[in-house]
């Protein structure tokens, strides 16, 4: 089965609101074996909406109309659909009473235009909205299925979770698996996977690049779900043996989350001495559950005075080599480690711009310090100030994730 999604609202087209509904719905449809062939975002324009509804009804098995079910004049989704499929709008007395009761409990007077939300398309199955005012609907039309859902995500998402599966019957089984790789570019990962010849007619393997990692998504479809699971698990095993520790997790796990888990597993603590990133590294880790078990101290040593007084960096080192240097990064990490609060000390110093002070903009030195072992990595990042800081922080997390076994020896 294939589906089309239309999200309706001028606010989506002028950038006032981000369309998260299409992404959320597409993920849920993929989980039950429904292919999304079209995604459209339209203004509150009756003629354009009617035209696109007609077009997609000729292309898909299931059509989703998201938004435009509110009380205002520009909420025209039901009206446009009713005209296309030649149906009337009728008042649903239960929905109207529910609406009146809702306003009464809130001790508010319901304006007359709110009654509009209680009108539904004749012959539709009404999907009660337990999270808001406007109900959803599902309509059978010429062997097609048409869904209407309210647009606000706080209503849309729970209604999708509550009603989607029970109103779509799909005979095929589907098995999805997501794997996450860091430290390799998407093009490299793609080439390696294609050379393994793992895909079959009913199994697809695709890569999706994120900021500092790449997702591998395996989709297998067929009638025998047990056999699909066996095939997918064999592919996963092959990918693990091929990519090694570059393949760091499965499912929706970000590198920073995987790093915290790995540090906990190895009973290791970490600390950061940050100059260029100004606390960004620490912030990324502390956003992860249980980070307090591994992150024991973090110092923002943005000034040379702080580097000298807090981290005990030599003034001679700063004078001879500069704050953005191989030598300074080592002394920053050593000073942090000598405080005795962490097993692994990481320092980071660099030039974020917009005006260079010592080195070329984007130059970053990172020192990874563990007992008597240390390693310094030099990077050159492109982008504006914020992008350089983000790339630097993510590079540190990636390096730690790929090398934590060596750090813990």
UniProtKB/TrEMBL annotation:
SMART domains: MoCF_biosynth. It holds the Pfam family MoCF_biosynth. Residues 4-171 form the MoaB/Mog domain. CDD domains: cinA. It comes from the Bacteria. InterPro entries: CinA, CinA-like_C, CinA_C, CinA_KH, Competence-induced_CinA, MoaB/Mog-like_dom_sf, MoaB/Mog_dom. Belongs to the CinA family. HAMAP family: CinA_B (MF_00226_B). This is Putative competence-damage inducible protein. It comes from Anaerosphaera multitolerans. The lineage of its organism: Bacteria, Bacillati, Bacillota, Tissierellia, Tissierellales. The gene is cinA.
């Amino acid at each position: 089965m294939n589906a089309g999604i239309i999200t309706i609202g001028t606010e989506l087209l002028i950038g006032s609101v981000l369309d998260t509904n299409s992404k959320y719905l597409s993920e849920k449809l993929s989980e039950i074996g429904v292919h999304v062939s079209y995604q459209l975002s339209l203004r509150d324009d009756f003629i354009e909406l009617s035209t696109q509804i007609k077009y997609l009804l000729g292309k898909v098995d299931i059509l989703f109309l998201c938004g435009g079910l509110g009380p205002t004049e520009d909420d025209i989704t039901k009206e446009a659909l009713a005209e296309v499929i030649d149906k009337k709008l009728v008042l649903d007395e239960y929905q109207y009473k529910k609406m009146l009761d809702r306003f009464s409990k809130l001790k508010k007077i319901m304006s007359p235009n709110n009654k509009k939300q209680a009108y539904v398309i004749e012959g539709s199955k009404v999907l009660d909205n337990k999270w808001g005012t406007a109900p959803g609907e599902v309509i059978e039309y010429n062997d097609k299925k048409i869904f209407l859902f309210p647009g606000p995500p706080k209503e849309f998402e729970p209604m999708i979770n509550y009603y989607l599966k029970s109103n779509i019957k799909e005979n095929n089984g589907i098995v999805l698996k997501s794997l996450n790789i860091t430290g390799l570019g998407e093009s490299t990962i793609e080439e390696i996977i294609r050379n393994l010849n793992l895909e079959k007619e009913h199994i697809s393997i695709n890569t999706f690049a994120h900021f500092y990692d790449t997702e591998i998504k395996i989709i297998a479809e067929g009638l025998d779900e047990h056999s699909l699971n066996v095939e997918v698990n064999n592919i996963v095993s092959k990918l693990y043996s091929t990519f090694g520790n570059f393949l760091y997790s499965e499912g929706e796990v970000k590198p920073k989350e995987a790093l915290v888990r790995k540090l906990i597993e190895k009973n290791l603590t970490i600390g950061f001495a940050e100059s260029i990133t100004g606390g960004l590294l620490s912030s990324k880790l502390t956003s992860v559950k249980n980070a307090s078990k591994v992150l024991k101290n973090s110092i923002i040593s943005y000034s040379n005075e702080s580097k000298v007084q807090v981290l005990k960096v030599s003034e001679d080192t700063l004078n001879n080599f500069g704050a953005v240097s191989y030598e300074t990064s080592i002394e920053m990490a050593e000073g942090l480690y000598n405080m005795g609060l962490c097993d692994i000390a990481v320092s980071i110093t660099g030039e974020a711009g917009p005006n260079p002070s010592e080195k070329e903009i984007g130059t970053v030195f990172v020192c990874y310090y563990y007992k008597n072992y240390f390693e310094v990595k030099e990077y050159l990042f492109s982008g504006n100030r914020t992008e350089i800081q983000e790339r630097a922080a993510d590079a540190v997390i990636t390096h730690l994730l790929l090398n934590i076994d060596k750090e813990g020896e």
